[in-house]
Amino acid sequence: MNKFGEILSEMRRDKKLSQKELAAFFHISSSTVSSYETGAHLPNAEQIIQFAEYFKVTTDYMLGRSSCDLSPSTLLEPYIEGFLIQDVILMLKKLPYEHRQALVLLLEEISFGTSMRAQANQKGR
After folding, report:
1. Separation of alpha carbons 64 and 53, rounded Å
2. Cβ(48)–Cβ(59) under 8 Å?
3. Burial environment of residue 28 by CB neighbours within 10 A (0 to 12, 13 to 18, 19 or more)
4. Which whole-number Å values give the CA distances from 123 to 29, 105, 109, 111, in the listed order?
5. End-to-end distance of the chain based on CA atoms, in angstroms?
6. Could you tell me the pTM of the whole model?
7. Shared domain check, 83 and 61
8. Residues in the chain with pLDDT values less than 70
9. What's the total number of domains in the chain?
10. Least crowded by CB within 10 Å, which of 16, 64, 73, 117?
11. Phi, psi of 86 (to 5 degrees)
12. Do 86 and 104 sit in the same domain of this protein?
Protein backbone atom coordinates (compact mmCIF):
# COMPACT_ATOMS: atom_id res chain seq x y z
CA MET A 1 0.00 0.00 0.00
CA ASN A 2 1.26 3.50 -0.80
CA LYS A 3 1.77 6.11 1.90
CA PHE A 4 -1.18 8.19 0.73
CA GLY A 5 -3.49 5.18 0.82
CA GLU A 6 -2.34 4.10 4.27
CA ILE A 7 -2.78 7.60 5.66
CA LEU A 8 -6.18 8.11 4.03
CA SER A 9 -7.39 4.79 5.40
CA GLU A 10 -6.10 5.54 8.89
CA MET A 11 -7.63 9.01 9.02
CA ARG A 12 -10.94 7.72 7.68
CA ARG A 13 -11.05 5.00 10.33
CA ASP A 14 -10.05 7.50 13.05
CA LYS A 15 -13.14 9.51 12.12
CA LYS A 16 -15.16 6.29 12.17
CA LEU A 17 -16.21 6.71 8.56
CA SER A 18 -16.86 3.96 6.08
CA GLN A 19 -15.44 4.21 2.58
CA LYS A 20 -19.00 4.80 1.40
CA GLU A 21 -19.50 7.74 3.80
CA LEU A 22 -16.22 9.37 2.83
CA ALA A 23 -17.01 8.85 -0.85
CA ALA A 24 -20.43 10.46 -0.45
CA PHE A 25 -18.90 13.54 1.16
CA PHE A 26 -16.48 13.98 -1.76
CA HIS A 27 -19.02 12.99 -4.43
CA ILE A 28 -16.92 10.06 -5.62
CA SER A 29 -17.59 6.33 -5.61
CA SER A 30 -16.65 4.08 -2.72
CA SER A 31 -14.61 2.03 -5.21
CA THR A 32 -12.57 5.18 -5.91
CA VAL A 33 -11.86 5.57 -2.20
CA SER A 34 -10.93 1.91 -2.06
CA SER A 35 -8.57 2.30 -5.03
CA TYR A 36 -6.87 5.24 -3.28
CA GLU A 37 -6.49 3.28 -0.05
CA THR A 38 -5.06 0.20 -1.76
CA GLY A 39 -2.70 2.26 -3.90
CA ALA A 40 -4.25 1.19 -7.19
CA HIS A 41 -4.81 4.87 -8.03
CA LEU A 42 -3.79 8.25 -6.68
CA PRO A 43 -6.07 11.28 -6.56
CA ASN A 44 -5.14 14.40 -8.48
CA ALA A 45 -3.55 17.38 -6.72
CA GLU A 46 -6.88 19.16 -6.14
CA GLN A 47 -8.38 16.06 -4.52
CA ILE A 48 -5.34 15.68 -2.25
CA ILE A 49 -5.81 19.29 -1.14
CA GLN A 50 -9.51 18.62 -0.46
CA PHE A 51 -8.71 15.52 1.60
CA ALA A 52 -6.08 17.46 3.57
CA GLU A 53 -8.54 20.27 4.29
CA TYR A 54 -11.24 17.81 5.31
CA PHE A 55 -8.96 15.96 7.73
CA LYS A 56 -7.29 19.23 8.87
CA VAL A 57 -3.75 18.15 7.97
CA THR A 58 -1.17 19.32 5.46
CA THR A 59 -0.83 17.86 1.99
CA ASP A 60 2.71 16.85 2.96
CA TYR A 61 1.24 14.75 5.77
CA MET A 62 -1.33 13.21 3.39
CA LEU A 63 1.48 12.24 1.02
CA GLY A 64 3.65 10.78 3.78
CA ARG A 65 6.28 13.51 3.42
CA SER A 66 5.83 14.82 6.97
CA SER A 67 5.05 13.15 10.26
CA CYS A 68 3.40 16.33 11.57
CA ASP A 69 -0.36 16.12 11.21
CA LEU A 70 -1.13 19.64 12.41
CA SER A 71 -3.37 21.69 10.23
CA PRO A 72 -1.80 24.89 8.90
CA SER A 73 -4.72 26.73 10.50
CA THR A 74 -3.53 25.50 13.91
CA LEU A 75 -0.66 27.98 13.71
CA LEU A 76 -3.19 30.81 13.62
CA GLU A 77 -5.01 29.69 16.76
CA PRO A 78 -4.60 31.75 19.93
CA TYR A 79 -2.10 30.31 22.41
CA ILE A 80 -2.60 32.85 25.16
CA GLU A 81 -3.93 36.39 25.02
CA GLY A 82 -1.92 38.36 22.49
CA PHE A 83 -0.01 35.36 21.08
CA LEU A 84 -0.83 32.92 18.35
CA ILE A 85 0.71 29.45 18.26
CA GLN A 86 2.90 30.58 15.37
CA ASP A 87 4.23 33.47 17.50
CA VAL A 88 5.28 31.03 20.22
CA ILE A 89 6.99 28.77 17.68
CA LEU A 90 8.89 31.71 16.22
CA MET A 91 10.04 32.72 19.71
CA LEU A 92 11.13 29.14 20.44
CA LYS A 93 13.18 29.02 17.25
CA LYS A 94 15.16 32.08 18.39
CA LEU A 95 16.13 30.60 21.76
CA PRO A 96 19.72 29.46 22.30
CA TYR A 97 20.16 25.68 22.50
CA GLU A 98 20.67 25.68 26.29
CA HIS A 99 17.40 27.54 26.81
CA ARG A 100 15.62 25.11 24.52
CA GLN A 101 16.91 22.22 26.61
CA ALA A 102 15.79 23.89 29.82
CA LEU A 103 12.37 24.63 28.38
CA VAL A 104 11.89 21.02 27.25
CA LEU A 105 12.79 19.81 30.74
CA LEU A 106 10.32 22.26 32.25
CA LEU A 107 7.56 21.19 29.86
CA GLU A 108 8.22 17.52 30.60
CA GLU A 109 8.03 18.25 34.33
CA ILE A 110 4.77 20.16 33.95
CA SER A 111 3.30 17.41 31.76
CA PHE A 112 4.39 14.71 34.23
CA GLY A 113 2.89 16.64 37.15
CA THR A 114 -0.37 17.13 35.28
CA SER A 115 -0.54 13.40 34.50
CA MET A 116 0.16 12.46 38.10
CA ARG A 117 -2.56 14.81 39.40
CA ALA A 118 -5.06 13.41 36.90
CA GLN A 119 -4.24 9.84 37.98
CA ALA A 120 -4.56 10.78 41.64
CA ASN A 121 -7.93 12.42 41.01
CA GLN A 122 -9.19 9.29 39.21
CA LYS A 123 -8.10 7.05 42.08
CA GLY A 124 -9.79 9.34 44.58
CA ARG A 125 -13.17 8.98 42.90
Report:
1. 15
2. yes
3. middle
4. 49, 27, 21, 19
5. 46
6. 0.68
7. no
8. 1, 125
9. 2
10. 16
11. -65, -35
12. yes
